[in-house]
Every structure is written in C-alpha cells, then in structure tokens.
Amino acid sequence: MEIAFYLSALVAVLATLRVVTGTHPVHALLYLIVSLIAVAMVFFALGAPFAGALEIIVYAGAIMVLFVFVVMMLNLGDSAVAQERAWLSPRVWRGPAILAAVLLVVMIVTLFGGNQDGVIRGDTLMAKEVGTLLFGPYLVVVELAAMLLLAALVAASHLGRSEAHDEADLARERQREQSDAGAAVPRPAPQETPLAAPRPATADSTNRSQEGRT
Amino acid sequence: MNWWTPQVAATLIAMLQAVVILLAVVLAGALLSMFERRLLALWQDRYGPNRVGPLGLFQIVADMLKIFFKEDWIPPFADRTFFVLAPAIAMASLLLSFMVIPITPGWGVADLNIGILFFFAMAGINVYAVLFAGWASGNKYALLGALRASAQTLSYEVFMGLALMGIVAMTGSFNMRDIVNSQENLWFIVPQFFGFCTFVIAGIAVTHRHPFDQPEAEQELADGYHIEYSGMKWGMFFVGEYIGIVLISALLVTLFLGGWHGPLLPPIVWFLLKTAFFVVLFVLLRAALPRPRYDKVMSFGWKVCLPLTLVNLLITGAMILLIDPAA
After folding, report:
1. How far is it, in rounded angstroms, from Cα B144 to Cα B135?
2. Which chain B residues are Cβ-neighbours of A33 within 8 angstroms?
3. How far off is chain A from B144, nearest CA to CA, in Å?
4. ipTM for the complex?
C-alpha cells in the first residue's frame, strides 16, 4: 500500500508541475486529468475506495470534461502558447513560489514535529461508513451544499434560457395562429388583437360573458 | 516444487480468466459488425454481406485485413499526441469496465466493492476519447461532433447513475456479485422497472448508438468526431462502439435480469443468452427508429428521464423504509 501511495503521489506532483509549466492549454488540461486520477489512486492506497471512485467520476469524469469542452471552443492557437511562455518569466512566478515554499516548510515541520504516527495503514472505509457520517454528524453541511447547488442550478437554468429563442417561438406561434384564423375566418375583426383572432365567434362570446361575470 | 502453492495456482487461474474474458469481449466486439449488418439486412428485407465464406461469415476477416493494411494517416494539422491517444482511451476504458462484471459464480475478473462506481468512472473517462478525437482532428465537423457527444454523454450519465441507485439501495452494496446474488428470487427489472427503462436509454446514449448517434450523424456532420481517422485507429473507435454495446448489454443482464440465474441451463449459457438478447435489441433499435433532432435528445434527457429516475429513487427509498425500517 505504501509503494502505491508514494508512486501515485509522485505522479500527482509531477503532473501538476506540468500543468503549471506547460504552455499548451489543452495539454495542460490532460496533465490535470492525470493528476486527478493520481489523487484518486492516493485515495485508493489510503483505503478510501469510495472517495477515490467519486474523485474520478466527479472531477475527472464531469468537471474536467467541461473544462476541456470550454478550452477547445476557445480555438487557442500559437499566440496563446506565446503568451503562456511570456507569463512564465521568473519575475511572475518568483513571488508565488516563495509563498508556496514557506507553506511547504510549515507543512514539513508540522509533519515531523507533530505526534502523528505517520504510517499508512490498510483500513478500508466503505460507502456505508461515508454515508453514515454524511447523514449523521455532517447533515447540516450536506443540506447547505444541496441548497447552494440548487441555487446554482436555478441561476444557470435562468441564464441559459435564451430570450431570442423564446421570442422566435412566440412569433412563430402567433404566425401560425394567424394563418389558422385566416383559413377559418377570412377577415378578422380589425379591433381584435392577432392573438385573440383564432378563437371562433361562439367561444369568444362565451369567454367574454364569463369575463363579464367574474 | 515448493513455489507451487495454492495461492500461486489461484493467481494463475485468475489471470487466465481475465485473458479469456478480454479476448472473448474483443472477439465479440469485432464479430458484431458482421452480425449487425446481417441482422439489419434481414429486417430491411435485403441480403447484407453474404459473399465471403459460408453465410458471409468471413466478411469480418476481409474487413479486418482491409483495416489493418490501410494507410495509417495522421493529418498534418492534427495534434499528434491527442490524435493517437483518443482511440486508445475509447477502447481501453470500455474494456476495463468488463473487469467488474461477474459472469458466472466462478468467473469474473475482479470482485470490487465499488463495482458500479468503477463502471461510472470508466464511462466518465470514455468521454475524453470523443472529445480529444474531435479536437485533435483539427476539423470543424469533428469538433462539432465532439461537442455534441460530450454534452450528450454528460447529460445522460447524470441519470444513468441515478437509475442504478435504486438497485444499490435495495441491495445495500455497490458490489456486482452481491447485486446478482440478491436477485435469486426476483429480478430487479420488476421492482426497478423505471430504473431499467432509463438505464437502457442512458446506455444507448452513452455508447452513441442509434437513435442517439447525433455526434456522428452522417447527414449533418459527415461522421463527426472520427472523420479524420483511418486504418486501425478508426477501427478502434469502430470496435470500441461494439464493445460498448456488449458492455451495456452485460451490465443490463447483471443489474436487472439476474445475471447468471435461470432454470435448467448452466449459468454461463444463461448469461450469454441474456446478453445476446440485449445485443439483438440494440441492433433492432437501430434498424427501426429514426434519428431525433439533437435538442430534442437533450431536453428528453433532462426533462423526462432525470425526473423519472428521481421519482423512482424516492419511491424505492419509501418502500424500503416501509417494508424493512430496521435495515
């Protein structure tokens, strides 16, 4: 298990480095996918196959697909590669690298100074334990996440509704009704709106009388 | 002979089983192309390929020879890495999924506790094959096909997962062997009929089979994502599609039709018979149905199938709580 852990961790680190240093956007995304799969392997090695499988399904199988989808649509050419290369100058990455190095030192000190036993054990955590935890002590967090996702879903659905499409639909419907009316009643009454025209005269009158009653 | 322990023997037998299953699946995938053409011809009242060998059985050999010796051309405007990688992903991810399918009580490659999730993971990886192929080809039709395919696959994978959660709730396990064992008395197609319907639809959509083959619609996209492919790379997409059919059929049998369970005949015969039934059904669908418009396919998935699976899951959960609240 330890060998599997260290191998997949190494792959994850190397692939992530290539994501940062790579100049071709789509190639960088491929490295990111490899990195995510390697992280899933880390989960498997640590005895959490459920989390590992979900990592591949959700991150590699859904989120990254959308990333790749969008980047492919951008039609990035050689100019994007040149720009990436310009962004990789030492002046740009020096600051973040120093900050990240400080964090790395802090983490190493914590790892060696703390009282963790530091051994990878082969305990396997199955879906049942995860579910019991999620819907037991962490129920509020799950509910909050669900609400957040619902809000995002509603917002995306609203933004994705194209008004042009709706209007085109409406116009087509109006036209169809008009042509229907043209076939049934040769000349619609001039004071009526085109939408009200297709109604036969009898239905029209009953509607009006009902409206009058209410 | 001190190295010949029972453990070594068990390992060797398991490896042998894995190789036999792999070869059988690849062979079935290759043979299906001929089988499908003959069946289509039968239903459309014509002959189909009947010249090479008895009943046209050697047509597949001729096709394979042709595919192997065709020029393996990579367009100069293509992205070489991705262009070569895509067909490999297409075939490998589907072949790996066969790992979790229990064929008979004694046969099967891996007894994974997360069997169903492993299949979903592989189905998720499989999307990249089409996406990379379409993008790397540097062709507008291919890109359009890839975009259609990824949007369609993502949408249908959402409720493909939800369709199976009713089974998981009833069995209490993601393990395929447990699922088959719990169907000894009643196949899950009866209590999970809506799950079955939606899973069939999602399965066809995920393998881009007719009537969900908008990603490669000949009339609009001139074959979509594999338009620039030739030779064996195209062959891998082609065989990969048939392997997808066999995979979805085998999954349907395992999850909904009791796997190897059945009276009189030995388990392997039952498994093969049921799988063959679904394969023929897939071919019949292709022969019988027209191709719907792309936006209809998407709205059908999101507005009909997804609510249906959610209601199915809700009712399943309620029934489980009603019948057996302790579990």
Report:
1. 9
2. 128
3. 10
4. 0.81
